[in-house]
Structure formats: structure tokens, C-alpha cells
Amino acid sequence: MAIKTHSWVRIKRGVYRDDLAQIDYVEHNQNKVVCKMLPRIDYKKVKSMYKDREPVQKFRRSAKGRPAQKLFDADLVRSLGGELKKDGDFIIFESGRYRNGFLFKTLAFSGITIDGPKPTLEELEKFDELPENVDPDLLPTDKKLTSDSIFTAGDIVEVCEGELIHMTGTIISISGDKVTIVPNHADLKNAGALDFPARELRKIFKDGDHVRVIQGKYEGETGLVVRVDDNVAVIVADTTYSEMKVRPRDMQLCTEMNSGVDSQGMYQIGDVIEVDQQTIGYIVRIERESVRILTQHGKTQSVRNNAIVRKLRCGQALDSQQNFVRGKDIVNVLDSGTQGEI
Fold first, then answer.
1. 97, β-bridge pairs
2. Per-residue confidence of the chain (342 residues) as pLDDT tens digits?
3. φ and ψ at 48, to 5 degrees?
4. Bridging pattern class, strands 168-175 and 178-183
5. Whole-angstrom Cα distance, residue 167 to residue 108?
6. Counting beta carbons within 10 angstroms of the beta carbon of residue 206, is it exposed (0 to 12), middle (13 to 18) or buried (19 or more)?
7. CA 211 to CA 224: how far, in whole Å?
């Protein structure tokens, strides 16, 4: 199998053994590739390395297991005394090259596996690459998909194989793997309803459609379709106004809007929660069994519902001029990476 840019591979050896990586660049003359991967950095070791702000030992992997995969946190490394350098749009730390939180590592062809296990949806979501540079229909899923779970009455579909390829229609009924549609083409109006195997159909959406995500990373979210590119739809979420990239097969037309409240009614977007003694956060997204928060450190992270300590009551605080600040007040940021923003 040829080694190509954007291909998914697995690492053979070392701390990243069996980890998923994406080829960023191929050096055919030297039989090497530059791989994009999630770093495994033990930040506790970084802290001990730079005790008294001087390196006291070479950065090594602990013999006991390996650190968890996590995007490179330059602010945390700086706070621990780590020394960072810049090389174009890369950050250099301990000879590692990082960009947008990912490690870019040069490896020999012999250090990677091209035909290993296919990436899982969970792995691809960590790369935030789904479904860019990859055919989503070839990916494994943790759910067994049937015509009943993919399609529903009222869906607009297109025939993707057979004699009537490219014909569009509206689903009126589903029976097992048989889907019955009414053609939208004027010349076929008198033909009545037509039956197709589910595998010969695909959902289609247009800009302006209001949809609900029925499975995947954004399951339960609703929003407006703003762009459709091949097997990818870009949706603006009703609650957070953030963009979501979703496969058309994972969406359904709907009229109702997401309330922004979790399934048990305990948390909603805008709540402030305590995760542990060092972390509080503002809920910016409700997910299936977790919430995504913006912490007091300016970072976003996902927190499972059962890991939330409590919901905090937010009253008021004092700003830099000792004036009271309350919820929904408009403020000017004076000192942070977002200085000057309102």
C-alpha cells in the first residue's frame, strides 16, 4: 500500500506504540514521514524537571505505563518553568515540534504500520478530523446501523446506484431493508411510489435545513445547515452557535430546537460547575453523558456528568476597579491571551 499524505497509520514502537497518527508529509528520498499525533507528556515529570526553573534531569518516560494522550498545553508547560521556542508556526519543547496542540514527529517508513486496524470514530474525534480527509462510510461504528436507524419517513433521499441513479424523492415508509419513496422528478410523478434497497439510497440536505444529529459526537444537538460538501454537512448549533461537521446519514430534518438541558435535567448551558478543588467551568455544550466546559484557565474540556462535584450559584464579583460584576454584564478583558476583547 502506498504511503500518502493524510493517510492514517499506527506507530510501531516506543511510547506511541499502536497510537493513531496521520501522515503530514512524505520524504520519499529518505524513506521518512512526518506524522501528526496526539502527544503523551507527563506534566508531573515536567514540573520535577524544571524545579527551581533549571532542568534537573533529561526528559524521560516513566517505566510505569505511559502518559495519557492529550493536546500539548504550552501555557501549562510555561507555568511549570518549561522552556519553549518558536520555529515558524511550530512550538519546540524538549526537541518535540508542536502545532495546534499536536506533535509532529519524523519517523522512518519502518516505524509505522500502514495496514493496521482502521481508525475508530472515537480516535478520529480526538483529531477533530472527522470527516475531513477520510471516507466516513468506511469507518467502523459502535452501533449496528439498520435502515430503520438511518432513515425515517419524511427524509429526502437520492438514489446513489442502479438505473435511476441521481433521482431524488421523499421516503413514505420503511419495511426492513426496503425503503419506499415518492419520486420528486416531474417525469416520474405518475409512476407512484417506488421501492429501493436501503443501500442504494443516501440522505440529502440543502443549506437552510433545520436538523437534529441522531448519532455520533454531537448526538442530540440541533442546528441549521449552512454548507454541504460531499459526505460532510456543516451545521451551526442552536444553543452554542458553534460549527459542527456531521455526516448526512447521522442527521434528520426536525422543527424543534435543542433546549440546551441534559437528559436528566440537572445541567444546562450557562451553568457554572465545580469539577475538583482546582477547576471550575462554564458549560458551553451539553453532550450525551457529559458536558463541555470553559474553565477558569481559558481551556475547554469534556467532563462526564458523574464527575461533576456540584453546580455553583453565581452571584457577583468585583472587577479591577472594585465595581460589582454580575451575570450577563459586558466586560473588557485587560490581562490575558484575549486582552482587549469585549
1. 92
2. 578 888 889 999 889 999 999 888 888 888 899 999 999 988 887 766 665 544 444 444 444 578 888 888 888 888 888 888 888 878 999 889 998 889 999 999 999 998 766 777 677 777 764 444 444 443 444 444 455 557 888 899 988 877 888 889 999 998 888 899 999 877 776 778 889 988 888 899 999 999 988 887 787 788 899 988 767 889 998 877 788 888 888 888 887 766 555 555 677 777 888 888 888 888 877 776 778 888 888 787 888 888 888 888 766 667 778 787 776 677 787 765 555 544
3. -70, -30
4. antiparallel
5. 48
6. exposed
7. 6
pTM here? 0.43
Which class for 1: exposed (0-12), middle (13-18), buried (19 or more C-beta within 10 A)?
A: exposed
Phi, psi of 221 (to 5 degrees): -75, 150
Helices (H), the chain: 43-49, 74-79, 121-127, 147-150
Q: Which residues have C-beta within 8 Å of that of residue 152, sequence separation ≥ 6?
A: 171, 174, 252
Amino acid 218 reads Y
d(CA 276, CA 307): 9
- The C-alpha cell at 71 is 493536546
Q: Are 228 and 236 in contact (CB under 8 A)?
A: no
Give the DSSP letter of residue 142.
S
For the chain, how many residues are written?
A: 342
What are the strands of the beta sheet with 310-312, ordered from one edge? 300-304, 290-295, 279-286, 272-276, 310-312
Q: Whose grid coordinates read 459542527? A: 244
Three cell numbers, residue 89:
508556526
In contact, 212 and 251? CB cutoff 8 Å? yes
